[in-house]
Design brief:
214 residues, mainly alpha, 11 helices
Length: 214
């Protein structure tokens, strides 16, 4: 685990991220906040590309909680059976849809606690939804962010909660809204787990990773 980088270094890092891509976007396809919740819940232990392929037709016919209930668990399974843990995920999609219909009038609530109360929705999923839909600076820490944060010193921490707190406490607030997207994309396409592309990394000179590749 690298030590926490200082304010000025962090500001330079995120200035570079911003200059490279001012408005980073999540890569899960969705048509409204409900389908965003479903897509993020389905993405656990699955790739975004795999989820997008599975939901392409699903969201055409079931883009509201009631429509998903009308489709039924077996109908959901038929659409998502190409992704991991599809049976349990289909069960959770139906359960969360029922709760949204019965307790929230078919609307998706916009508090972290309410979102986390939904089956299959954890803190990371809740934070993604709060950030992407309501533009609240919540930090959804996944394996990419955990790796990048600890390698570089941007947001080191012994677990995902510590990394989330490190982002909130140390990254300048004017970068907070897009911080987790910049870090995810950096981890996905540059600071890869096995073969990080250090030679072409835009923050190579600021990163504390001791095993930089050529």
């Amino acid at each position: 685990m690298a030590k926490q980088l200082d304010y000025h270094t962090l500001r330079e890092i995120f200035t570079r991220f911003q200059d490279a891509e001012a408005e980073p976007k999540g890569e899960l396809d969705h048509v409204n906040v409900y389908t965003l919740v479903v897509a993020v819940a389905l993405s656990a232990q699955a790739t975004d590309a795999g989820v997008n392929k599975a939901t392409k037709d699903l969201f055409k016919i079931a883009d509201t909680p009631q429509k998903m209930l009308d489709l039924g668990e077996e109908g959901v399974i038929e659409h998502i059976k190409t992704i991991g843990l599809y049976r349990n995920k289909a069960k959770n999609v139906i359960k969360l849809s029922r709760i949204l219909v019965d307790e929230y009038g078919g609307e998706v609530p916009c508090s972290r606690a309410a979102l986390e109360s939904l089956p299959g929705v954890g803190r990371k999923t809740a934070n993604v939804v709060l950030n992407m839909w309501w533009r609240y600076p919540a930090q959804a820490v996944d394996t990419h962010i955990f790796r990048v944060g600890n390698r570089s010193g941007i947001c080191p921490g012994k677990d995902v909660n510590a990394v989330e707190r490190a982002i909130e406490d140390n990254i300048p607030v004017d970068f907070q809204l897009h911080a987790h997207h910049w870090l995810i994309l950096h981890g996905r396409y540059h600071c890869k787990a096995r073969k990080p592309l250090c030679a072409t990394c835009i923050i190579r000179d600021l990163c504390l990773y001791e095993e930089k590749t050529l």
